[in-house]
Design a protein that fits this description.
The protein is an alpha/beta fold. The chain folds into three domains: 37-122, no CATH class; 126-171, no CATH class; 179-421. The protein is 49% helix and 17% strand. It has a six-stranded mixed beta sheet. Strands 1-2 form a two-stranded antiparallel ribbon. Helix 7 runs parallel beside helix 8 (258-265). The radius of gyration is 30 Å and the shape is elongated. It starts with 11 loop residues before the first helix and ends in a 7-residue tail after the last helix.
């Protein structure tokens, strides 16, 4: 017969299979219910547990330092020994915790868990950075910490904590890159930055897929005005200077002059216009009631098995829609040279370069963080927040970096297509 815990209602067999963390969590929750106290927040049970753990850790460190436990006898009566305590309050993720830091007579005790002069324990800074990554301003972070944890944190402290991100960002922006990337996706997102007055400024983003299928954001750059091929030329040159000698396929939107800029930096690169960008741009010229049919007809073009077949289907599309929407026909004719490389690839490669979805997903997270801020005081603040978006993993969502689905099939096709330019070393 299964034994039941009278307090929690959890079968004994289930309790035995639970990890230590789960059992502790259950016990804390039941204790909070029994004592009628909150589990989190100022005066909550977790704050009391944290205080007990930190105080015990300090006492254990002192015992290790002196060679005898608290209340015991020192091995050398005339040697170093305890000399009272000093009060100290530290900020933790569960609130402000008052502690009594033990002292030794010789003044040589250096605690590691709560170092001298430290007012915040490990994890508190990370909490501030996490809120900053979500787009909260320093004032909002300060209010949040006060409301949830009952601690008063100055704006200056929050600024100093987040300023450490600037150093990480600078190192990340200048790190060396791989010699070759089979695929690089480039795009730009516009954010509001105050420079005298609030204006939309482009943030250029390059995402590479290396020979092992790993996605990596190669860099971000703040532009000064509208998105331009001249700015991209400088960015691509910087990537080359950081070690990128060759790129097989560069996926981009239809910005005028961009294919020429790419060819100048990587002469052997295949410039592929993002098919999704082209299809979306087409719909801007059409009435909404026709979007479904136009999208279906355009799909017939970009899923054609060959360039000749795509040309035939485009002729049919022009006959059906050219009279009503000549701007769509002109758009596709102007983009045809950058669209057609896609049709020469086998299906395994087409799946990878069909769209800049990987970078579009990143841009979606960027926009979410930017909406919370409204605008940024300067471009450095914008880049710091977007950098944290890249480096902070999200629960239940695919990370920006990581493996590319279907890459084994794609790399085989890429190797056959580009030959010795692809290397797995």
């Amino acid at each position: 017969m299964t034994q039941i815990n009278d307090q929690t209602g959890t079968p004994a067999t289930a309790r035995e299979s639970e990890g230590l963390e789960v059992r502790v969590a259950r016990e804390l929750l039941e204790q909070a219910k029994a004592e009628g106290v909150s589990l989190v927040g100022p005066g909550g049970l977790l704050a009391g547990v944290t205080k007990t753990v930190l105080q015990a850790a300090l006492d254990a460190e002192m015992a290790d330092h002196l060679g005898y436990e608290k209340g015991g006898r020192p091995p050398f009566p005339l040697g170093n020994h305890r000399n009272g305590t000093s009060p100290k309050t530290v900020l933790t993720e569960v609130g402000a915790i008052p502690l009594e830091v033990p002292r030794d007579r010789n003044g040589k005790f250096e605690p590691q868990i709560v170092p001298k002069h430290a007012r915040r324990v490990a994890g508190f800074n990370e909490a501030i950075v996490s809120l900053y990554a979500k787009g909260l301003t320093t004032g909002e972070i300060r209010a949040h910490l006060g409301e949830i944890y009952g601690v008063e944190v100055s704006r200056d402290l929050i600024s100093r904590v987040t300023e450490h991100v600037a150093g990480e960002l600078a190192a990340w922006q200048s790190r060396p890159l791989d010699r070759i990337y089979p695929v690089v996706l480039i795009d730009a997102i516009f954010v509001k930055i105050r420079d005298g007055q609030v204006a939309n400024r482009p943030i250029y983003v390059a995402l590479g897929i290396n020979c092992h299928g790993q996605r990596d954001v190669l860099g971000m750059w703040a532009g000064t005005g509208g998105e331009g091929a001249k700015a991209w030329m400088g960015i691509l040159a910087e990537l080359r200077n950081r070690g990128v000698e060759d790129v097989c396929i560069v996926c981009c939107d239809g910005l005028k002059g961009l294919p020429e800029a790419i060819s100048e930096i990587w002469p052997q690169a295949t410039v592929q216009l993002c098919v999704v960008h082209l299809a979306r741009a087409s719909l801007r010229y059409a009435s909404k009631k026709y979007w479904g049919q136009i999208s279906k007809d355009l799909r017939e073009i970009y899923t054609a098995p060959t360039e000749a077949a795509a040309g035939q289907r485009f002729a049919e599309f022009e006959a059906a829609w050219g009279g009503k929407y000549p701007a769509i026909i002109r758009l596709w004719r102007n983009a045809w040279e950058q669209f057609t490389p896609f049709l020469a690839f086998p299906p395994e490669i087409r799946k990878i370069i069909y769209t800049t979805n990987a970078i579009e997903s990143l841009n979606s997270r960027f926009r979410q963080a930017c909406r919370r801020r409204g605008h940024f005081p300067d471009e450095q603040s914008a880049l710091k927040v977007l950098y944290l978006v890249i480096t902070t993993p999200q629960q239940n969502r695919a990370n920006v970096t990581g493996g590319t689905p279907g890459w084994k099939e794609a790399i085989n096709a890429l190797t056959m297509y580009y030959g010795d330019r692809i290397t797995l070393n």
